[in-house]
Amino acid sequence: MSEGARFVAMSRSSVARALVAVGMLAASAARLLAQTGHWVNISPEGGTILALAVDPLSQSTIDAGCSDGIFKSVNGGSSWTPMKSA
């Protein structure tokens, strides 16, 4: 056995409490990491978005049904073009 190795006797309830504490710490750390990112608005200038449809064959193609019309993006939402109504 290594000279630096030590063993500590713990009861089952102590182990359970320690595992719960580690789990809570991990969950808190995950929440903090998730909050460090930021959202960027890439929606069309057509009012409130009411519906979205993503082309299953080309996921960069998105249609957005907005309160002011229908818009299409072919570049993942970087730019939007209003669709003409028929």
Structural description of this entry:
With 86 residues, the chain is an alpha+beta fold. It has a domain at 49-82. The protein has one helix at residues 12-34, and strands spanning 49-54, 62-66, 69-73, 81-82. A 4-stranded antiparallel beta sheet has the order 1-2-3-4, with no helix packed on it. The model has no long low-confidence stretch (mean pLDDT 73).
Features:
alpha+beta; 86 residues; single chain; rod-shaped; 27% helix; four-stranded antiparallel sheet; 1 helix
Task: Provide a quick synopsis of the model.
The chain is α+β, with helices and mostly antiparallel strands. The protein contains 1 helix and 4 strands, in the order αββββ.
SSE arrangement:
Layout: H1 12-34, E1 49-54, E2 62-66, E3 69-73, E4 81-82
Antiparallel strand pairs: 1-2, 2-3, 3-4
